[in-house]
Amino acid sequence: MTEIFGIPTQALFGQLLIGLINGSFYALLSLGLAVIFGLLNIINFAHGAQYMLGAFCAYFLLNKWGLGYWWALVIAPIAVGITGVIIERTMLKPLYKLDHLYGLLLTFGLALVIQGLFRNEFGSSGLPYPITKELTGGHNLGFMFLPTYRAWVIVASLAICLATWFMIERTRLGAYLRAATENPQLVQAFGINVPRMITLTYGFGVGLAALAGVMAGPIYQVSPQMGADLIIVVFAVVVIGGMGSIMGSIVTGFGLGVIEGLTKVFYPEASNTVIFIIMAIVLLIKPAGLFGTQK
Description:
Elements: E1 3-4, E2 7-8, H1 9-40, H2 47-65, H3 69-92, H4 100-122, E3 138-140, E4 145-147, H5 148-170, H6 172-182, H7 184-189, H8 194-220, H9 228-241, H10 246-266, H11 274-285
Antiparallel strand pairs: 1-2, 3-4
Helix pairs in contact: 1-5, 1-8, 1-9, 1-10, 2-3, 2-4, 2-8, 3-8, 5-6, 9-10, 9-11
């Protein structure tokens, strides 16, 4: 068996794969947070609960209506996104003129309520969600075995992240969104319905979280705690990349996932804290984050 730095090749690449998978979810979730914060200036602490709702929506679609994974990838983000629209219109909208802390506290309370309701109903143990038959099996690459579903998660997450970046940074719609963050009154004067744009943006960010939840179900199982276990790390990713930075969320999400995976190989004791250590160092050197801009 070949080795790299004294580590068996199969173990090294296996942890690298796990890091890329975790990084895929870090990137998708932090991307949704960045989109919401960039336009609404709200730190959406309910993001983890909405990620969990996406996974449960896929679980219900399969077990109650017989709709499989591919249907869930479409229906769950739309369904959870609609709940996000309702939350924005009924709860968040009245808070826009107040301090940002109120939005954070509200979404934090929503997360606790949603997670508590699902934990009381389904318990804390995970519920199985099978991999769709089209993505079962894997490929022997010689130096490691690559499961097909995990490869799909990495490729699909990267494609979704890049498509979102392109939409926001390179299209007219994205230009309107970015302009609305700077001068909403001017954008409104051009006939753009800014409140509707804000509502749909929040729904879109929530939909990204739900999409990540559907993709995570077959890997991590469906659990009421799955969002709570992940959201703190995702917030660290957003801070490191730069609050509101789309490209920062993508690059930092995948990058930190890989670093976390490699840390488990070379220094396992630090694997649970390495992201927070990096966050502390980045904030000391560049408080706005790697891709953020100081206002």
